[in-house]
């Protein structure tokens, strides 16, 4: 190896191998560039952030977003080792901030550093979800009803909670357009206005899984966009006529509903204490639900006859008691009334 091989041909300094030394290579290399202006777009209604054409829900504020987009605006040469960025961000107006940025690194064995100013523009734009909601846009309606009766208060409350849980889950999964724009309790039941057909289907399936019954879909053509037909779908959810705990007439006696299993309903025969199954058409009048049962005092027991003091009128009324129940005078027992007939329930 000759002496010339170890000397930088530009400055005459020592160099390892061939070519320019690290100082001369670095002086001719643009080791860092930056975007002088960056933009952050957020929705003033829900504070979601826009990245390109995609909106993302976030709870982060300027203090977190600002440093992130400033770092993304600084571009190091791939040969820079140990790059580092420090900054101070100052707000000039409500829509403008300026970042005083200091960068440093190691380039071809030489320490390099530089300072720069990057402007941050904070822009507001209504996101796709809020734009749809404010424009009263919706893709479907979930109608929760009960077959042959009104929804019970606890069914309305449960259906509301199910819908909210489904919405939270889909939003957390990134499906921002699967939203609930309105939930309204009507005389017939509960109406849930939804922003996408996906959430409508998910709510319907979840309500049926939890409360029983079935659902059907009823699409309606509302127009066409870019050659694609647009439909608005009504999801008709029908809860069972009877629910767990209902007491109904069965033949000459009474039964307490235990479970709805497809076409058959399992019930507890209050006359003999046996579990039986029957079709819905085999049941008669709905008396009530055991949640609404009142406490009645047992005045006397005469064989299989109970003398009960009517909690409403105070009149003593007799009713048969099944062999499955132990009853003693002075005890209280839960009852429902079928006109003047007292019905001890489980």
DSSP E strands, number = 23
Q: Provide mean pLDDT, rounded.
A: 85
How many domain modules? 4
Tally of DSSP helical segments: 5
Largest sheet report: 6 strands, mixed
User: Shape, please?
Assistant: elongated
**What structural class do helix, strand and pairing data support?**
alpha+beta
Structure characterization notes:
The protein is α+β, with helices and mostly antiparallel strands and 346 residues long. The chain has 4 domains: 1-30, no CATH class; 32-124, no CATH class; 136-239; 246-344, no CATH class. It contains 5 helices and 23 strands. The chain has helices at residues 22-27, 62-72, 128-134, 153-172, 197-211, and strands at 32-34, 37-42, 49-51, 54-56, 74-76, 80-91, 96-107, 110-124, 140-146, 180-185, 190-194, 214-225, 228-239, 246-250, 253-261, 264-269, 275-279, 286-289, 294-302, 305-309, 316-320, 332-338, 341-344. The chain starts with 21 loop residues before the first helix and ends with a strand. The model has no long low-confidence stretch (mean pLDDT 85).
Question: How does the SSE layout of this entry go?
Answer:
Blueprint (H helix, E strand, L loop, with lengths): L21 H6 L4 E3 L2 E6 L6 E3 L2 E3 L5 H11 L1 E3 L3 E12 L4 E12 L2 E15 L3 H7 L5 E7 L6 H20 L7 E6 L4 E5 L2 H15 L2 E12 L2 E12 L6 E5 L2 E9 L2 E6 L5 E5 L6 E4 L4 E9 L2 E5 L6 E5 L11 E7 L2 E4 L2
Parallel strand pairs: 2-8, 9-13
Antiparallel strand pairs: 1-5, 2-3, 3-4, 6-7, 7-8, 9-11, 10-11, 12-13, 14-15, 14-18, 15-16, 16-17, 19-20, 19-22, 20-21, 22-23
